[in-house]
Amino acid sequence: MSPVPAVPARTSRTWSAVGVLLIVLAWHVAARQLGPLLMATPWEALCAIVPLVQSPQFFANAGVSLMRIGVGVLAGASLGFTAGVLAGHSARLRGLIEPLRWLLMAMPPVVIVVLAMLWFGLGSPMVIFITTLMMAPGMYVNTVKGMLHVDRNLIEMTHVYRYGRWLRLRHLYLPALSAPLLAALLIAACGGVRLVVMAEVLGAENGVGYALANARSTFDTAELFAWVLLILGLVAVLEFAFLQPLQRRLGRWMESSRA
To answer: What b/e string do you get for 106-116 counting C-beta neighbours within 10 Å, with b at 16 or more?
Structure first.
């Protein structure tokens, strides 16, 4: 009798909380060792959030960065998904796109930032271009892999029953692609936040990264780490308040689509 495969245990929230406490403790110890000029303590960073939020530049910088993140991630995800669906249907197109995909994934982001600064100058077009260009390959790869793993018999059945393109996309491809696409979207959303902030630090006239660069230049480590905490909070909201509920909703939709 073959053994029954074990069901993976759910992640323990208690141990996750312990992990967070260990990170905060390590942060506190490192800050004490390095001194206030190099690293603020967790408490100092928390206390710096209130005056930071009350400053007149906060909402301007945060709003610009959120706009760049939304437009860049949406454009990159849409471009990668569309190219992946088309390449999943055509081996020739897939071979044509593959060198460009490899080039974008192999090239260091700093190189793309420097080139974008030369082409677009400082500002939102440069940041959005970088985010779109770096987000699209991941979405494309996951879409193509999902398309290639769709059961060929089901594809032939949709042709026999004369399903149109929209019906095939809705009832065949999207249920098969939902899991890899959601994983890619999670990576794209979190990676998009990091890319936008990095691009703003290296070359922007406003935004969260610009504020981080100013805090670094004035050695205001409390404000710098306060921005870091706010960025982490944004990523947490994206993952736990938006992407995970979307994952559960897609899971229910997949079950109803299979039925």
So the answer is: eeebeebbeeb
Residues 6+ apart with CB under 8 A from 5: none
Q: How many CA atoms lie within 13 A of 104 on its CB side?
A: 19
Tokens read off for 217: 């230049």
Cα 256 from Cα 7, distance rounded (Å): 23
Structure tokens, 226:
């306060």
Q: Give residue 2's pLDDT.
A: 44
Reading the block at residue 210, the tokens are 């610009």
3-state SS, one letter per residue, for 129-179: HHHHHHHHHHHHHHHHHHHHCCCHHHHHHHHHCCCCHHHHHHHHHHHHHHH
φ and ψ of 39, to 5 deg = -155, 130
What are the tokens at 37? 């000029």
Q: Which of 188, 85, 87 is nearest to 135 (CA)?
A: 188
Q: Would you state the pLDDT for residue 7?
A: 45
Q: Quick one: which of 259, 111, 83, 140 has its CA closest to 199? A: 111
Radius of gyration of the chain (CA): 22
Contact 94, 240 (CB under 8 A): no
Amino acid at 52: L
Residues of the chain with pLDDT under 50: 1-7
- pTM of the predicted model, to two decimals? 0.76
Residues contacting residue 34 through CB under 8 Å, at least 6 positions apart? none
- Determine the number of helices (DSSP H) and then strands (DSSP E) in the chain: 12, 0
